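Here is this case:
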Amino acid sequence: MGIDLTPIGSTSLTPPRDAVPPRARAAMDAATISPGEVPAYPPPEVLEAATAAQDAYEQLHAQGRELRFDVDEDTGRVTVAVQDLDGNVLRTIPGSKLLDVATGAPLD
């Protein structure tokens, strides 16, 4: 899987306001950055999320597990596999279930 970074022509740096979910709209309004401006560091909530992701990764790795995210070419849906550190798939998790687990639900 690759990412095509071919230029697509003249585009706006921000999507149309009505195309953005309401929750994200507030964040856009609070953090308006002009083109060419780069913040000195990420906002605190981004740093907290990155730290939480790192903690989760370290916990999984300590248990000899890792997550692999792929996109199913037929359906376009994200698939998540729990695998051991040798790459053997132990379990496949639907993307929707992973979101539940990420918010605190048990991984039954």
About this structure: Confidence is low (pLDDT under 50) at residues 1-14. The first strand starts at residue 65 and ends at 71. Residues 44-62 form the longest helix (19 residues). The chain has three helices and three strands.
